Amino acid sequence: MSRAGWARLRLAGGVAVLAVLLWRLGSGPFLEGLRTVDASALVAGVLLAVPITVCCAWRWMLVARGLHVPLALPAAVAAYYRSMLLNTTLPGGVLGDVHRAVRHGRDAGHTGRGLRAVGWERLAGQVVQIAAAAVVLLLLPSPVRLSLPLVAAVALVVGLVGWPVMSLTGGTRSGRAVHRDVRDGLLGSWPGVVAASLLAVVGHVATFLVAARTAGVTAPVAVLLPLALLVLVAMGIPANVAGWGPREGVAAWVFEAAGLGAGAGVATAVVYGVMVLVASLPGVVFLRAGRSRPRPVEVEPVLKGASHG
Predict the structure, then answer these.
(1) Is the pTM of this model over 0.70?
(2) Which residues contact 146 (CB under 8 A, 6 or more apart)?
(3) C-alpha to C-alpha distance for 93 and 244, rounded to whole angstroms
(4) Residue 118 has pLDDT above 50, yes or no
(5) How many CB atoms lie within 10 A of CB 174?
């Protein structure tokens, strides 16, 4: 299947999840989530997004340096804000990452390595996130514990390996080339990559907990923590509509399994989505600031040739 076909299929997946939720639960939970969003939640989301973005940018910088496409932290933070804005406003939820990968690669004079740096950086973050979810589910009693292997396998194979390594690198790479990327980009700086990823996960979980409280969920943190991590894992699957779809679907499922109600899960996910959208708005400033610089016009041709870089 062509890249355009896969993109349409991923978008259709997100639409299908939202359609099923509307059919089963109605619009009430979605409207309730929007109604409960208040200024304090939005401010909290904006403040939490700062350390999250810095940690993710730091992780990207470490991987990029390992692949010999140097990147300064301030530039990485600005690019990450731009990508976060594009991911939360454009279909698919990954176009922002493609944008920063292509732009950095062109600036560094090596588009292929720039694409691979973003692919491996995102993959590393998702692997650490899945590992954190596994540890929490093993340590804390939760009604969704038995579903962890299936959730982790689907998220890892479909969303986390298939997208970053295949889409961003432009196709299948030889085992030797992949080994070289892992050795230089990840293993050489793994303590920093893992630390940055864990800190980002903590920030995302804190944002989710604020969203849950804003939506009126009063369950203890020990109950919400495993649910939050599973929802975050689902968010890594690029079958969504600007971030919407799997997040709400998995939130409905895990909240229902925990006895909190599927509607409460959807409302929490909606609040979380609004918080993330508002927190990404600084990306508008960075997009405007970069208008005078050369910008990637056509991503598809670059992706097709990236594996040769």
Answers:
(1) yes
(2) none
(3) 9
(4) yes
(5) 9
